[in-house]
Specification:
Blueprint: E1 4-9, E2 14-19, H1 27-36, E3 45-48, E4 51-58, E5 63-70, H2 78-92, E6 98-100, E7 103-106, H3 111-132, H4 142-150, H5 209-214, H6 256-267, H7 271-283, H8 290-306, H9 311-325, H10 336-352, H11 360-369, E8 374-380, H12 386-399, E9 404-408, H13 416-427, E10 431-432, H14 440-453, E11 458-462, H15 471-484, E12 488-494, H16 500-515, E13 526-530, H17 540-549, E14 553-557, E15 565-566, H18 570-578
Parallel strand pairs: 8-11, 8-12, 9-10, 9-11, 12-13, 13-14
Antiparallel strand pairs: 1-2, 1-5, 3-4, 4-5, 6-7, 14-15
Helix pairs in contact: 2-3, 8-9, 9-10, 10-18, 12-13, 14-15, 15-16, 16-17
């Protein structure tokens, strides 16, 4: 039923890996690159066609437990399987690990334990849970409760009067034998047959609780032994002691002592308890609980949203911090606020740090040595400054000593070709155009052939601005990329947008992926943020865009002149978000 089970450390050491069928690709590698490295550990699951991956991060053990299965099967109780996997590994393997200097040198095999113990118990748990599921009665449903509330005065149940058998009543017929007809009444009148009470099907406004209860055939009484006891093992199973704690249905009963402790702590905290809690908060060495983290993380979430971080992204970042810090101890003389802030600083830095180093000048130099032009396509929504920032990148490349050409593939907006020609004249750079009638993909293909013929080092392609929900234009953009296969695809986005940045970037990227050939799937390679000088400390769009796609921010635009193009300073952005 599952396709993959794995355990590895947060540092990347693989301790256990077991596949149950041939995988179409490296699922674990995709999970690490697209989710875990980017700090998206708060997400419940990750889907990469056709697999659904779930994981459990153990902060105290610094281990990650992973289960992958085909999404079409809709497996239940996968979270319970992860909990069982963790408990079994802690019980059987952790005490036997050979650790020297904080590094794992040797680990016992977990394959047999996982297959013969964990999987078997999990399958038994599934069978038991399915067997215990019973259909709800009508009175337990929302509609049944509404009807019960609307009828507080229950009508007395009418029972049909018992009719005593009389000689005049018909005799039961026996097949194959003659049955005499009953004699007529001396008075000449036939005895009336007993009236049968009509069964009312469906629920009307006049239905009583007793009528509803009479229509409930979902519950069946268990077969009892002669002494009145329920047969053991048929309807009641004994609990496996190793399974306690894995059930998430909340069916386990708390002991009376635990209830008293919980109720007592909820009602009142003593003076000494409050004083010791405050002292630990100041001096450190406090084990962090959800109650400690929630108010601090709630404040961080509000601050992030005020600085243009999308609400969904802010929530995921805070949930990731909560998962990381839960049940850990604060450092000596470190408050909870400082602990959370340090973790948030590390997470934001990790998100903004590029996973792929994009050096346009170095890549253009390699393409020049190979004797071909280096092609960059600029895409984005309307009015974000694609042509202006294309001109800034062209100015930077020209000053680095490369020959370049601009391709005017925006034949949708009036004046777009003339605008690009104006930039070309200002920088003394040639512009390739075919007016407003040809397809952008054909114009780009001709521009690439022209650049090859003239041995131009770099070709910058300008495209029309389009909204992410404009399907015809998005399909046209995807065709341009699929047909011409540029070296770099840069998305131009505004630093002023907030929640809309997720929708823009996701749909642009998805349209490119959907129309790419399966053997060469293309995605957005990098991001240029424009109008970065207008946001002051509201720099949250940088986090939103990089968290959504995992793509680096290559440049930020800081003005309207050709020289107003800068590299993103990660430390400055993180400081602005947390200040």
């Amino acid at each position: 039923m599952i396709d993959l089970a794995a355990i590895f450390t947060t540092g990347g050491v693989l301790l256990f890996y077991r596949t149950f069928c041939t995988l179409k690709f490296d699922v674990l590698d995709s999970l690490v690159k697209k989710v875990l490295i980017q700090g998206k550990t708060s997400e419940a699951s990750y889907f990469i066609d056709p697999y659904k991956v779930k994981w459990l991060v153990s902060s105290e053990l610094k281990l990650i437990f992973v289960i992958a299965y085909q999404e079409i099967f809709h497996l239940a109780m996968v979270d319970e399987l992860l909990d069982m996997m963790r408990a079994s590994y802690v019980k059987h393997i952790i005490p036997k690990l050979e650790i020297k200097g904080g590094l794992v040198f040797a680990a016992p095999k977990f394959d047999e334990i996982f297959v013969e113990s964990v999987l078997v118990k999990w399958e038994n748990l599934q069978t038991k849970t399915n067997a215990n599921k019973t259909m709800r009665s009508f009175q337990e449903t929302d509609r049944g409760k509404e009807v019960a509330k609307s009828k507080p005065d229950e009508e007395p149940e009418k029972k049909p009067a018992k009719v005593e058998p009389t000689p005049e009543q018909p005799v039961k017929k026996v097949p194959g034998k003659y049955t005499p007809k009953p004699k007529a009444d001396p008075a000449g009148k036939k005895s009336p047959p007993p009236k049968k009470e009509l069964t009312t099907w469906g629920i009307s406004e006049n239905a009583s609780n007793s009528a509803m209860k009479g229509l409930d055939f979902s519950r069946q009484e268990p077969v009892q032994k002669s002494n009145g006891e329920v047969p053991e093992g048929k309807y009641i199973d004994k609990e496996d002691p190793e399974m306690v704690g894995f059930l998430s249905s909340g069916e386990e009963d708390e002991s009376e002592e635990e209830k008293d402790l919980i109720e007592g702590s909820a009602k009142k905290k003593g003076i000494f308890a409050r004083f010791s809690s405050g002292l630990k908060n100041l001096t450190g060495n406090k084990v962090l609980t959800p109650e400690d983290l929630e108010p601090v993380l709630s404040k961080f979430k509000e601050d992030l949203m005020e600085k243009n971080v999308a609400e969904e992204i802010a929530h995921k970042l805070c949930e990731g911090i909560k998962t990381e810090l839960l049940n850990t101890k604060t450092k000596a003389f470190t408050s909870i606020l400082k602990t959370v802030k340090a973790a948030m600083n590390e997470t934001l830095t990790k998100v903004l740090s590029p996973k792929r180093s994009i050096d346009i000048l170095a890549e253009a130099s390699r393409a020049r040595d190979a004797g071909r032009p280096y092609v960059i396509v600029f895409i984005g929504v309307n009015g974000v400054g694609k042509s202006t920032n294309l001109a800034k990148v062209a100015y930077m490349i020209k000053n680095a000593g490369f020959s370049l050409m601009l391709a005017a593939c925006d034949n949708f907006r009036s004046g777009a070709v003339e605008q690009l020609k104006m930039h070309g004249r200002c920088m003394e750079v040639p512009v390739f155009d075919r007016g407003y009638k040809d397809l952008p993909s054909n114009i780009c293909a001709e521009a690439i052939r022209e650049a090859k013929a003239k041995k131009t080092n770099v070709l910058l392609v300008d495209t029309a601005g389009r909204m992410q929900n404009n399907e015809p234009l998005m399909r046209e953009l995807s065709r341009l990329i699929v047909v011409n296969q540029p070296d770099l695809i840069l998305f131009i986005g505004e630093a002023l947008v907030g929640n809309d940045a997720v929708d823009q970037l996701t749909k642009f990227n998805q349209s490119i992926v959907d129309l790419s050939p399966k053997d060469n799937i293309r995605e957005i390679d990098g991001i240029i943020l424009t109008k970065f000088d207008c946001v002051d400390e509201k720099v949250g769009t940088a986090i939103t865009m990089t968290y959504t796609t995992g793509k680096p921010i290559v440049f930020v635009g800081t003005g309207q002149k050709y020289t107003h193009l800068r590299k993103l300073n990660v430390k400055t952005v993180v400081h602005a978000l947390l200040s």
